[in-house]
Amino acid sequence: LLRNPVIVSLDGLSKEEAILTIRELGTKVWGYMIGSLAFKWGAGFITEITKNISLNLFIDLQLVGTPRRIREVISGFSQVGVRFISVNAASGAPGIRAAVESAPLSKILVSSILSSLRLPDVKLLYETTDRGGKALDFARMAKECGAAGVCFSSGELELLSHQPGFLIHELPKDFVIAVFAIRSEGEDPGD
């Protein structure tokens, strides 16, 4: 059982503010999440912040692309000690398998943006308006592709929990269900 399962988002902070936040909180929290800033700051930033302290890092890339591109990006972040890396479910099974295969030092979580999309966009992209059913499809795909788990919004997790056929006890005991629900002041709650 985690003592403090809080993951602090560093998005929206400058590089200096992120470093200061990590120095202040250290290991008092479970870990830290870096989203799009991982591309901006690169793997060198991760090496910089982890050189004097052992941290749990989660890189939320929402990565979508060809298996080759996914392998290239994932392997770079996995080599510098990132614990969890997300790959968007829209990459499909080939993209998720490529991520799992190229991350020997990291665990891959399949993420979703279902709750961020308008219903007409969900229909256009996934040919359904059943967000809960699609979240269940994503969780099954994650398990079948060897991913360590899923990263859903609290809304997606709520929808998933009401799906016929979703039996949490059928998931492996170490299957991770990460939920990001706390936003910094001023952040878009729909982001």
Strand segment tally: 7
What fraction, in percent, of the residue positions are helical? Answer: 40-55%
Task: Tell me the number of helical segments per DSSP (H or I, 4 or more residues long).
Answer: 7
Radius of gyration: 16 Å
User: Uncertain segments of ≥5 residues (pLDDT<50)?
Assistant: none
User: What structural class do the secondary elements suggest?
Assistant: alpha/beta
Largest sheet features: 7 strands, parallel
SSE layout and pairings?
Layout: E1 7-9, H1 15-25, E2 31-34, H2 37-50, E3 57-63, H3 67-78, E4 84-88, H4 92-101, E5 107-111, H5 119-126, H6 131-144, E6 149-153, H7 154-161, E7 176-180
Parallel strand pairs: 1-2, 2-3, 3-4, 4-5, 5-6, 6-7
List keywords for this structure.
7 helices, alpha/beta, 7-stranded parallel sheet, 7 strands, 191 residues
Overview of this structure, please?
With 191 residues, the protein is of the alpha/beta class. 40% of the residues lie in helices and 18% in strands. The chain is built from seven helices and seven strands. The chain has helices at 15-25, 37-50, 67-78, 92-101, 119-126, 131-144, 154-161; strands at residues 7-9, 31-34, 57-63, 84-88, 107-111, 149-153, 176-180. It has a seven-stranded parallel β-sheet. Helix 2 (37-50) links the parallel strand 2 and strand 3. Helix 3 runs parallel beside helix 4 and helix 6 (131-144) packs across helix 7 (154-161). The longest helix has 14 residues, at 37-50. It starts with 6 loop residues before the first strand and ends in an 11-residue tail after the last strand. The model has no long low-confidence stretch (mean pLDDT 82).
